[in-house]
């Protein structure tokens, strides 16, 4: 690209040190905050020139918040960004100059485009803001449309609603390149596209990277896509970085237990390698209450089945009556059976509270054949009976 390297080829393109962002919870009547959500909690990493750094992790781990902090769309509470040897926001690299060299492609291709601007105007807008004459900006926009596979004669005068999702994302990529940027942050840029269009956009990104010498930060939930695109992969969990490594090495020999659990969730077509038990048991800790230094505990990564062969919410057979526990119709006719007591308690709840507690079993129905059959025959009411009978 047109920008010169300030720190040399060995200097990291972007160095992130101690990035922190906490969001306060709602305040009470006295104006006191109920706590904070640790969205990003001490993130540090380097992005080297010419590489693609993949960022993976479950939903809510802080990937998108980190991307917005890197673009300074959100002000960090702590931390430092060093772009090619220069601190972002300092006199040597003002924020406007930094954003000329770093751009972002968002997940929602429609919401990130101005519905009142044509594709040509959307791409040319940023160069004109940064001082490029209008005629040159329009020429650059048309050239970039051609680069991303959209004929300017057909698409330059169209509006966002006149394009498909894949075409709009191509326009967003062209807009990110309009300032001759060196670093592109791709936040779930292909997750909303179908597989055929996704493959085209991924190949386009690889071609543009080679043509312009770009550096990517590629955020995605699709681990297969991350493996295909990335040179290195960074794994995040609850706002922290738990592992960073070479792509092939990390996918084959993951060291952290959370990374191992995350990779084991990749679907496979091999019938001999089906996942029968979940890699992680329970829900992630509450980020507003968990200790800052302990984001992942060994107890979280202990594999456990979703449910036993017989769901524990259902009374065990032959413990109260001679009827099997799965035969609920006969069980309801048996005096003293737990389901009979549960039915009485539920009706009492109806009269006292004005509503019926019909909460279903806390175990996923897909993991319990008894509940699938039960819900199909009698609906959620009987599942509420089973749960109350515990």
Could you characterize what this model shows?
The chain is an alpha/beta fold. It has two domains: 14-273, P-loop containing nucleotide triphosphate hydrolases (Rossmann fold), CATH 3.40.50.300; 328-388, no CATH class. 34% of the residues lie in helices and 16% in strands. Strands 6-7-8-3-9-10 form a six-stranded mixed beta sheet, with helices on both faces. The radius of gyration is 27 Å and the shape is globular. Mean pLDDT is 78; it is low at 298-326 and 354-383.
Structural class, from secondary structure content?
alpha/beta
CATH architecture field of the largest domain: 3-Layer(aba) Sandwich
Superfamily (CATH H level) name of the largest domain: P-loop containing nucleotide triphosphate hydrolases
**Strand tally, please?**
10
Rounded to the nearest angstrom, the radius of gyration is: 27 Å
Helix/strand order: EEEHEEHEHHHHEHEHEEHHHHHH
Give the CA-CA distance, first to last residue: 67 Å
Tell me about the largest β-sheet.
Answer: 6 strands, mixed
Helical amount among residues, as a percent range? 25-40%
- Kindly identify the CATH topology of the largest domain: Rossmann fold
Tally of separate domains: 2
Strand order of the largest sheet: 6-7-8-3-9-10
Strand content: 15-25%
Outline, from the CA principal axes?
globular
Q: What is the count of helical runs?
A: 14
CATH hierarchy class name of the largest domain: Alpha Beta
Q: Which consecutive residue ranges, at least 5 long each, have pLDDT under 50?
A: 298-326, 354-383
The average pLDDT value, as a whole number, equals 78
């Amino acid at each position: 690209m047109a920008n010169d390297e300030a720190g040399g080829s060995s200097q990291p393109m972007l160095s992130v040190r101690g990035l922190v962002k906490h969001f306060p919870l709602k305040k009470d009547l006295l104006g006191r905050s109920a706590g904070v959500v640790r969205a990003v909690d001490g993130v540090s990493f380097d992005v080297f020139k010419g590489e693609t750094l993949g960022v993976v992790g479950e939903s809510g781990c802080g990937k998108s918040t980190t991307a917005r902090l890197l673009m300074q769309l959100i002000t960090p509470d702590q931390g430092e960004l060093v772009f090619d040897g220069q601190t972002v926001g300092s006199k040597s690299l003002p924020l406007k100059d930094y954003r000329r060299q770093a751009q972002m492609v968002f997940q929602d291709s429609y919401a990130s485009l101005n519905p009142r601007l044509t594709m040509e105007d959307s791409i040319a807008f940023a160069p004109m803001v940064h001082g490029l004459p209008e005629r040159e900006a329009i020429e650059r926009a048309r050239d970039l449309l051609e680069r991303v596979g959209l004929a300017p004669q057909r698409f330059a005068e169209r509006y966002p609603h006149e394009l498909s999702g894949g075409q709009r994302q191509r326009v967003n990529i062209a807009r990110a390149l309009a300032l001759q940027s060196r670093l592109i942050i791709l936040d779930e840029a292909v997750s909303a596209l179908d597989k055929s269009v996704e493959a085209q956009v991924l190949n386009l990104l690889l071609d543009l990277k080679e043509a312009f010498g770009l550096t990517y930060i590629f955020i995605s939930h699709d681990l297969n896509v991350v493996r295909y695109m990335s040179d290195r992969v960074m794994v995040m969990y609850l706002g922290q970085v738990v592992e960073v490594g070479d792509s092939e090495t990390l996918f084959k020999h993951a060291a952290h237990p959370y990374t191992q659990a995350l990779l084991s969730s990749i679907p496979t077509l091999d019938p001999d390698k089906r996942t029968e038990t979940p890699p992680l048991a329970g829900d992630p800790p509450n980020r507003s209450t968990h200790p800052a230094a302990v984001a992942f505990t060994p107890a979280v990564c202990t594999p456990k089945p979703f449910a036993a062969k017989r769901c524990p919410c259902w009374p065990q057979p032959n413990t109260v009556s001679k009827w099997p526990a799965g035969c609920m119709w006969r069980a309801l006719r048996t005096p003293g059976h737990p389901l009979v007591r549960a039915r009485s308690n539920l009706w009492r709840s109806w009269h006292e509270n004005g509503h019926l507690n019909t909460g279903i079993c806390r175990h996923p129905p897909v993991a319990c054949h008894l509940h699938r059959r039960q819900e199909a025959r009698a609906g959620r009411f009987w599942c509420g009976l089973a749960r109350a009978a515990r």
